[in-house]
Amino acid sequence: xxxxxxxxxxxxxxxxxxxxxxxxxxxxxxxxxxxxxxxxxxxxxxxxxxxxxxxxxxxxxxxxxxxxxxxxxxx
Length: 75
What we know:
- This protein has helices at 9-33, 49-67.
- The chain has 75 residues and is mostly helical.
- It has a domain at 9-34 and 44-67.
- The model has no long low-confidence stretch (mean pLDDT 90).
């Protein structure tokens, strides 16, 4: 399917998902530690969606990165 020495695109997608997950989780934890004033909060801010999405992206990114990681001699 691919030539020896080439990396799978899914490995890079896993790395990107992992990086975005870490950034979104960090932003969510920062918002949890220092919430905005009540007049600037979104309606469902008590659900902490950024924390959940960050964790989900970290899990998905880890799965993709481990599943499609480059291996030596197994081309």
